Amino acid sequence: MSKTVNISSPSQFTEVLQGSVLVLANFYADSSIPSQQVAPVFEQLSQALSRPKLVTFVKVNTAQQKDIAEAYRVTSPPTFIIFRGGKVVEKVQGADALKLQSAVKKVSEEVQKMGSGEGGASGSGSGSNDANWKGAGLPRGYTDITSQVELRYCELLNVDPDAGSVRALFDTAKPSALSGGKGAAKDWVESDTDEQLLLFLPFQSMLKLHTLQITSLPPNDDDDDDEEVPMRPRTIKLFTNKPHNLGFDEAEDLSATQEFELSEEDWNAEGTANIPLRFVKFQNITSLVLFVVNGDGDGEKTRLDRLRLIGETGEKREMGKLEKIGDEPGE
Asked: Which UniProt keywords apply (predicted)?
């Protein structure tokens, strides 16, 4: 379901500007071919970055909402305007997807900087109003590019259906486990039949990946008496530029782009492991497969609360050629 708000009146537009810290507005026209061309890009960004009361994406039909278009001097659709606190901070004219992405990147960076409670905003995660939670700092010279994950094409294998969905891994809110959130909605994932997990992450753009940050917050034994306590991951294999997810046997046998072992010392006080990657091997990547081979302990399940990708973005990629296991050529 689309997260983009279709503006139907000036009063509604005013309410949105007052109710969200950041607003990105697409002023479009149905008769404009450039508007039609860039609309899917805007929708993908809306799906990836929308946050209740923090970041809102809206569409304004310039023919139907002439007063709004005139108020912001929009004469040539598509025009994209970014508002902060109800004020214009940037305007992008035309169907230039790269310029739009660059502008929206600033939105993403704004989200990362937002403190809890700023502008009355709250996070989109379960039970936390800290939208600026981070398990570890950013390496100097690099940015958080987690928003480049194409969520609708992600695939997670061997996941416990009673835990959270794959989207929970990329929530910007503080994990409920750090907020005393026992009994809250499960905003983490756990493996199901054994300790292994296979996660396929396609990206919206070509990426240079510098660092992977993994947060894992299994409960203490005495906190979860009625259930088996999951483990943190220990051995992890990464594979780049795969067109689809791997099978478990295939992932076991293939040589990884990088493989690493995590120990207790790798996890900080907030349950996050900061993993530097062999940067030369993670240039110009379009997808990542993360394979949790085993957990650190004697249990039968592993747990992941958050994933964060640090690096640089590059050229936007076409998303139409992604495959799933079992797809036949030409389908």
From this structure: Disulfide bond
